[in-house]
Structure formats: C-alpha cells, structure tokens
Amino acid sequence: MILSIISVLILPFVLFFIEYVLIERQFKKLIYIYKKNKIIIQSVIYFPILEEFIFRYFIFQYCILFGFNDIQFILLSTLAFVLAHVFYQGVTSVVKVIFSVVLGIIFLLTLNVFVTIIIHCIFNFLIYIVRNSKYNNYYNT
Predict the structure, then answer these.
(1) Which of 2-6, 9-13, 107-111 has maximum average pLDDT?
(2) Does the pLDDT at position 118 exceed 80?
(3) What is the C-alpha separation between 79 and 55, in angstroms, rounded?
(4) Closest Cα to residue 120, out of 85, 87, 86?
(5) What CA–CA distance (Å, rounded) separates 115 from 63?
(6) What angle do CA 112, 116, 121 make, to 5 degrees?
(7) How far is Cα 44 from Cα 121, in angstroms, rounded to an integer?
(8) Residues 6+ away with beta carbon under 8 Å from 53
(9) Distance between CA 10 and CA 129 in Å, rounded?
(10) Total Cβ atoms within 10 A of residue 47
C-alpha cells in the first residue's frame, strides 16, 4: 500500500523533474511556470490530495480505531471538511456538504483514497475552469 502511494503521488513528479530539469536544463523556466500557475496547481493537485488523506483516510482510520459506524464516519468527515472550507470560503462552503457526503460514500464503497482524490481533482479542475471563464468574461467585455 505505501509503495503504491509513493509511486502514484511522487514518481511522476520525480520523472518529470529528471527529464525536464536535469536533461533539458529548464529549471528557471519550470519555476516561472509554477509561479504563474500556482493557484491551479494548488487547487487542482495539492489541496485535493491533502484534503482526501485528512478528511477521508485519516478520519476513517480514527473511526475504525474507536468503533464508529459508517454513518458516523460520513458525518464526522463531512463536518470536518465543511468546517475547514468555511475558514477560507465563508458560508458559501456549506454547499460542500453534498460533495463531501458523496465522497464519503464512495470512499466507503471502494476503501480507496485514490478514487476520491481523482474525483476531487477533477471537481476542483471543473470549478477552476468555470470561475476562470467567469472572470475572463467579466474583464473582457
């Protein structure tokens, strides 16, 4: 399990770094690209991975340890997920309840955090596209 986590999460970045930075010697360009696209990289890759490990995997392990049932897991993980989003998105993050409940159910059905990570990444990517197009339409008209 640990080896597959390392392989899926770290290996693509290591291989990319080897090819792009060491072989093609494009480190400065890579830093520039990252700085220019930091928001999309964080919201589509970093945050979903971090959030799914915290709000699904670790809370699930906690629930198993203390003998909580599936409903309690979904309630606890949803509450934690929504509260975490309230701090930086405000009251509008309450709509994340449905998203969190669905991800909790999917996690329980699959017991695979990678499935919820992929769903969360795709969801955040779609949100980014919609918000970015609204922003561009507003300033380009």
Answers:
(1) 107-111
(2) yes
(3) 9
(4) 85
(5) 20
(6) 140
(7) 5
(8) 113
(9) 25
(10) 14
The tokens for 63 are 């629930």
Type and span of the H or E element at 112 = none
Taking residue 103's Cβ as centre, other Cβ atoms within 10 Å add up to: 26
Q: Is the pLDDT of residue 119 over 60?
A: yes
* Of 4, 22, 3, the residue nearest 14 (C-alpha): 22
CB 44 within 8 A of CB 125: yes
Kindly report the pTM of this predicted structure. 0.76
Residue (of 25, 52, 31) closest to 122 by Cα position: 52
Tokens of 92: 């509008």
- Angle of helix 96-110 relative to helix 113-140, nearest 10 degrees, comes to 150
DSSP 8-22: HHTHHHHHHHIIIII
Q: Which long-range contacts (CB under 8 A, 24 or more apart) does 10-18 make?
A: none
Distance of CA 141 to the CA centre of its chain: 32
Altogether, the residues listed in the chain come to a count of 141
On average, the pLDDT of the chain sits at: 84
Does residue 60 contact residue 74 with C-beta atoms inside 8 Å? no
